[in-house]
Specification:
The complex is a heterodimer. Chain A has 6 helices and 5 strands; from the N terminus they run E-E-H-E-E-H-E-H-H-H-H. By secondary structure, chain A is α+β, with helices and mostly antiparallel strands. The radius of gyration of chain A is 16 Å and the shape is globular. Chain B is of the alpha+beta class. Chain B has 3 domains: 7-52, 2-Layer Sandwich (Uridine Diphospho-n-acetylenolpyruvylglucosamine Reductase, domain 2); 57-172, Uridine Diphospho-n-acetylenolpyruvylglucosamine Reductase, domain 3 (2-Layer Sandwich); 178-286, Enolase-like, domain 1. Chain B is built from 12 helices and 14 strands. In chain B, the strands form 4 sheets. A 5-stranded antiparallel sheet of chain B has the order 4-5-10-6-7. A 4-stranded antiparallel sheet of chain B has the order 11-12-13-14. Classes of the chains: A alpha+beta, B alpha+beta. Chain A binds chain B through residues 2-3, 5, 21-23, 25, 28, 44-46, 49, 52, 55, 58-61, 63-66, 68-69, 113, 117, 131-132, 134-135, and chain B through 1-8, 10, 30, 33-34, 37-38, 40-42, 50, 52, 54, 78, 101-105, 107-108, 189-190.
């Protein structure tokens, strides 16, 4: 019988626990143990970016991290991006407005990546956008509308920040 | 795929970590995991035990002095890449780090882990080699410092003994009137490069070339360093220096590029990087 470990971490602001073997990937903990299937698993070796989540606010590949290593940390998944009442975040709204998705498989990874990108670089240049999303693959859109979505999200975030100040 | 089962150890201190490594000599160290976990997921590696050092806070260090940059075993790529202090002392490090995979990978991956993984196609081993840096290894028996020239023994084969942990890496500072540059070509952004080069050029007080070195990745089983001071001459004939490199390397063909193309590409990148490093050295000499 494989040894199991108690893992306690914060997911989308909620304290969660699970008992899992050491080899449980963070992506599988989220999907199978916690039922958060918004995080998608594509390549499972860090190339496609679909499983990207925020670990203490920074985008990381959840397929390249063990759940036991994530214990004690704060994880944000795509389910945690919208407001509590379900209002989509500015990044989510921008992707909808600009048609930044088609099949949607890569979208959770893009949303998490872009959320962190714009937090660090609120007004990115075209080059910074391309570099920022270079680790996420999309097989439908050809990226043009995703790039547009990132620029649009920057505008929406700036507007939201402006409203917050006044 | 999913990783095979392994015994899991999560020490909280360095002493504890060295104790565990001494007790399980087949144990593999898990730091950022950005190279190790893919190998486990694809079942290309199946270590009996993993020693997860992510809770060893004393290894999460980045010390910058006039002498150079010392990265502890838990210093993530992103932290070193963003460090203005590290860039001021040794700019080559940050320049090379921008070519390491993607931002999300650099948030987890560690500088020391990349060295200990010893992938000949990776950027940091070539940087450590060209700068003549060192790796400090610790075990329950004591500590030792390993020079870059001795550290890379073969592909994925660092000079670490069973029970040893690479606790830090030291990248020496750039001397005065020194410029550095990094250039590589990959088929896709963030992929391992077909060929890459880190160049360091130092001028003397009369602006003649005092030292010129390149470190290469992707063209041999270990990083390759060339001293091109003689080949370039005091005036800095970088085309001659690049030709010197091109004639002395023996890259292999693989699915991504043929040997002839790699040789040609290495020459082009070498000349480009040496030119950029020399321009920077000239600028610094004028400051």
């Amino acid at each position: 019988m494989e040894e199991s470990f108690e893992v306690a971490l914060t997911v989308n602001g909620t304290h969660r626990t699970a008992r899992v073997p050491a080899r449980r990937l963070l992506s599988d903990l989220l999907r199978h143990d916690l039922g958060l299937t918004g995080t998608h698993v594509g390549c499972e070796h860090g190339v496609c970016g679909c499983c990207t989540v925020l670990l203490d606010g920074e985008p990381v590949r959840s397929c390249l991290m063990f759940a036991v290593t994530a214990a004690g940390h704060e994880v944000t998944t795509v389910e945690g991006l919208a407001a509590e009442d379900g209002t989509p975040s500015p990044v989510q709204r921008a992707f909808r407005e600009c048609h930044g998705l088609q099949c949607g498989f890569c979208t959770p990874g893009f949303l998490c990546t872009v959320t962190a990108l714009l937090r660090e670089t609120p007004n990115p240049t075209e080059e910074q956008v391309l570099e920022g999303i270079s680790g996420n693959l999309c097989r439908c859109t050809g990226y043009q509308n995703i790039v547009k979505s990132v620029h649009r999200a920057a505008v929406l975030l700036a507007e939201a920040a402006g409203e917050g100040e006044s | 795929m999913k990783p095979p089962p392994f015994g899991y150890h999560a020490p909280g201190t360095l002493d504890e970590a060295l104790g565990v490594l001494a007790a399980v000599p087949g144990g593999k160290v898990l730091a950022g995991g950005q190279s190790l976990v893919p190998l486990l997921n694809m079942r290309l590696a199946a270590p009996s035990d993993l020693v997860d050092i992510n809770r060893v806070g004393e290894l999460d260090t980045l010390r910058v002095t006039a002498g150079g940059v010392r990265a502890g075993a838990l210093a993530r790529h992103a932290r070193v890449e963003r460090s203005a202090a590290a860039a001021a002392v040794q700019p080559l490090l940050g320049r090379a780090l921008r070519h390491v995979a993607h931002p999300a990978i650099r948030n987890r991956g560690t500088v020391v882990g990349s060295l200990a993984h010893a992938d000949p196609a990776a950027e940091l081993p070539a940087v450590l080699a060209v700068l003549r840096g060192t790796v400090e290894a610790a075990s329950a028996r004591g500590r030792r410092t390993i020079a870059a020239a001795e550290f890379f023994r073969g592909p994925l084969e660092p000079a670490l003994e069973p029970g040893e942990l690479a606790v830090s890496a030291f990248f020496p500072a750039a001397p005065p009137r020194t410029g550095t540059a990094f250039a590589e070509t990959a088929r896709r952004h963030g992929d391992y490069a077909l060929s890459g080069v880190a160049a360091v050029v130092t001028l003397d007080e009369d602006l003649r070339v005092a030292a010129a070195r390149t470190g290469h990745l992707g063209i041999a089983p270990v990083p390759v360093v060339f001293d091109l001071t003689g080949a370039a001459g005091p005036g800095g004939d970088w085309a001659a220096a690049a030709a010197h490199v091109r004639e002395r390397i023996d890259p292999e063909s693989d699915i991504h590029a043929g040997a002839g193309y790699r040789r040609h590409l290495t020459g082009v990148l070498t000349e480009r990087a040496l030119n950029a490093a020399a321009s920077e050295a000239l600028r610094k000499a004028g400051e």
